[in-house]
Specification:
This protein is an alpha+beta fold and 308 residues long. The protein contains 6 helices and 11 strands.
Length: 308
């Protein structure tokens, strides 16, 4: 069950959240960390959220999703993202928001969501824990139809869990893992798709998602935050892979992605999707992996499987 909600009157502005996060980072540099080691005890909730049809159309075109009245799972992530960001932007949040690294994402979509439906969206933080490189936690978002029981698990249409790492931040009293598992060796298969990503890819996704994190927008803004070039949004890449899986996934599915290496823009990205089918031809799931065709380095991998 999620923590008790704080009701917000509207979805937070991501641009204002990033400005607040920059101000908070400056205060931390001057005054040091505030010393908290506990996550906020409350969730944030906005009720009656509506998706914009123009924004949905632009998202579907950019990602490669078929035009439809049903909200793609990645679009719902973008719709809920400002609320999750607002949790990380609280004064009692123990980790710095800027510089967070997105490690993994898991979505369970149990029923289709139409763009005409008003939605109740709730987000909170949980599972603060150590990592060999810092401290990690989960940001959880849940989406229901407006007015549905917010405490009933069976009313959740879409649930996303995003795992983030605060690299180099070690909180007192939180132990890091004693052993680090070495990544499995990767041999690139024959690709089923090859994406050509321009230098403006981050700006294009920001326009439809609202995520104007400076590391994605330009070389100059990315360098200001310590990156050598701008990088593609992780959820843009994962959402393109989900779109390439196609309609076989149906209306109820689980979608996982693990991010391993950033995609610096511009870039070429190779993708392979392998699908499993039962003897009668029923779709049993798809695995995907993406890598650099130049270096052979894996960027991300994941799977899409049906929900029972």
């Amino acid at each position: 069950m999620s923590p008790a909600p704080v009701l917000l009157t509207e979805m937070p502005s991501l641009s204002k959240l990033y400005v607040n996060a920059a101000a908070s980072a400056a205060r931390r540099r001057l005054l040091g960390a505030h010393g908290g080691t506990a996550l906020p005890a409350e969730s944030h909730e906005v009720r009656g959220v509506l998706a914009g049809v123009d924004n949905l159309t632009a998202y579907q075109h950019l990602i490669g999703e078929t035009a439809s009245d049903i909200l793609p799972a990645g679009f719902i992530h973008a719709l809920a993202f400002p609320l999750a960001m607002s949790v990380m932007n609280r004064d009692d949040f123990p980790l710095p928001l800027l510089g967070m690294i997105h490690l993994e994402n898991t979505v369970e979509q149990s029923a289709p969501v139409l763009f005409t439906e008003p939605l109740d969206i709730r987000a909170w933080a949980e599972n603060l824990r150590g990592h060999r490189a810092g401290t990690q936690l989960d940001l959880v978002a849940e989406v229901r139809g407006a007015g549905e029981d917010g405490n009933a698990a069976d009313t959740v249409r879409w649930r996303g869990v995003s795992t983030y790492l605060a690299k180099g931040v070690f909180l007192p009293g939180i132990d890091k893992p004693s052993t680090a598992q070495a990544p499995a060796a990767f041999t690139a298969p024959d690709p089923t798709a090859l994406w050509q990503l321009g230098v403006d890819t981050g700006r294009a996704y920001a326009a439809v998602s609202g995520d104007f994190n400076p590391i994605h927008l330009s070389v100059l803004s990315a360098k200001a935050l310590g990156m050598r070039r701008s990088i593609a949004h992780g959820m843009y890449l994962a959402s393109r892979a989900l779109a390439d899986v196609g309609a076989a996934k149906g209306d109820a599915f689980r979608w996982d992605v693990r991010f391993e290496a950033p995609v610096f823009l511009p870039a070429r990205v190779a993708l392979d999707i392998s699908t499993t089918q039962a003897e009668e031809g029923t779709w049993q799931g798809s695995d995907y992996v993406a890598w650099s065709p130049r270096s052979g380095r894996k960027h991300f991998s994941g799977s899409v499987t049906p929900l029972a």
